[in-house]
Amino acid sequence: MNSQPLAPNSQVRFVDTHCHIHESDYPLPVEQTLKHATDAGVSKIIVVGTSNQSSANAVKFAVEHKNTFATVGVHPHDTKDGYGDIADLAKQKTVVAVGEIGLDYFYNHSPREVQILALEAQVQIALDNDLPIVFHVREAFDDFWPVFDNFSGLRGVLHSFTDNQKNLEKAFEHGLFVGINGISTFTKNSEQQKLYANIPIERMLLETDAPFLAPVPHRGTTNEPARIVDIAQHHARLRGVSLEELATTTTQNAEKLFRI
Cα(55)–Cα(44) distance, rounded to whole angstroms? Predict the structure, then answer.
């Protein structure tokens, strides 16, 4: 079955599980961005912290805007600057996860040993507050899985997954969801294309990572939560399922994981 755009009165709704529209340098007007999202059927938005200040901004944004939620955490790039505010911020009512946290060995903006210590500390904050985790892992899975396995009871999502089948299967074995964004609509890597096409929608979360990674057919523009629909349409076509089915399942996944 080919997916079709949702009718204006459709009850199907989407969740953008990962975006950065709360940042002060987000280039589009916030109210316009939120209206676009609502008009597209995006009923809930999660704004994701990447530093102490970004996380504080995310909490404030979620307080001030209806149907938005926050995550708090220090991105591996910024762990060299510390993560001292996250424990307190994680206790705020609008916070639904710790993240994005993890390991990034592609750039090594922070030393690897610092990244690992920060990951361990922030995982413990998530456990202390019974929160899921938004993981950012890039070219670092060999170090990531041992850290993960040192803890029990973790739940969460691998954000913007671009790795291989082996680590995808490990993610599922560890009970993790996988975050799918615009990359899946424009990658030229045949292995990635095959990988994305075979991810079960029961383990999938939709995310824009706005303002980054605008999906086809919006390449070269500022991304926004309304573009979740384009990502969903792409994956519905790949799987031969209706847009409604994919939207319903991924929304249920998000609501279950983040308790929203």
Answer: 18
What are the pLDDT digits (tens) for 129-147?
A: 999 999 999 999 999 999 9
Nearest-10 crossing angle of helices 228-239, 243-258: 120
Task: For residue 84, count other CB atoms closer than 10 A to its CB.
Answer: 10
CATH code for position 205: 3.20.20.140
Question: Alpha-carbon distance 248 to 260, whole Å?
Answer: 14
Residue 108 tokens, joined: 């090594």
Report the pLDDT value the prediction gives residue 12, as an integer from 0 to 100: 82
Question: Is 6 inside a domain boundary?
Answer: no
Q: Which domain holds residue 181?
A: 14-258
Does residue 45 contact residue 21 with C-beta atoms inside 8 Å?
yes
The answer as to whether 5 is a domain residue is no
Q: Classify residue 251: in a domain, yes or no.
A: yes
71: left (phi over 0), alpha (psi -120 to 50) or beta: beta
The domain total for the chain is: 1
Q: Report in angstroms the alpha-carbon separations of 107 from 73, 103, 110, 124.
A: 19, 10, 8, 25
